[in-house]
Amino acid sequence: MGWLISDVQWEQYERDGYLKLGKQLSDDELARLQQRIDDIMLGRAPVDYARMLMQLDSATGKYNDAGLQSKGFKGATLNYRKIQDLEYDPLFLAYTQRPLFREICRRVYGVDTPIASYRAMFMNKPARRGTWLPWHQDRWSDLDRDPLITLWTALDPATIANGCVQVIVGSHRLGVVNPQHPSAFLTEEQARELASAEKIVNLELGAGECVLLHNWLLHASDVNHTDIPRRAYSVCYMDANTRSMNNGQYALVFGKGALEPADVSASSL
User: Fold this and answer.
1) Is the pTM of this model over 0.85?
2) Domains of the chain by range and CATH?
């Protein structure tokens, strides 16, 4: 099989826990996704908001002050922090199913393993706002196995000034650092030890660029100190055989019976 990612690149990913993939969206594709997510935030999109998880940003920048994560529209504003269930939107689904992303899933989970989206979400740090995201790993205690990868795409330039993702290189090789915490956040003591300032790498990206992240890679992000938003599209891909103790249902994105953009209308969200 000929891979789109070289063995050298893959070795780098396995060593560091992340791999920058370069620009994956053309200028036109980027503009369409930017417009689409703004329309959703402003209530101009023909979607079923009752089925969409939406969370408003905090006004203080503190994580615990962010809005409730729940289904339903929270008002016409560009100050959303998170919007999930975008795998049911035809534009976002088409991007989610890029051949490169399928290849990455095959390398991680196996060539014949069906792949589901654990979450396909918009993450936002509005201009001069944004919420500090504390150091953590991406894992969830209700699943019988851990989803291992996330593909994170910048919809605006992601810079140190506007709150780009920060990582600790190679920290995924530590395994699960804090298994007792339901959301895998580090304690203050763990953060001081494992995420000291000299260890932090800022993953700055241009608009349309994508980075592959191992879900156990320690990461965090600051608030936005600039006049432009820091919008991003983040997809966590998982083995579709994963079972949830909460009876969660997850959309198949690769494999027999996977969602097709042509079959997913805007009103199906």
Assistant:
1) yes
2) 7-63+75-268 (2.60.120.620)
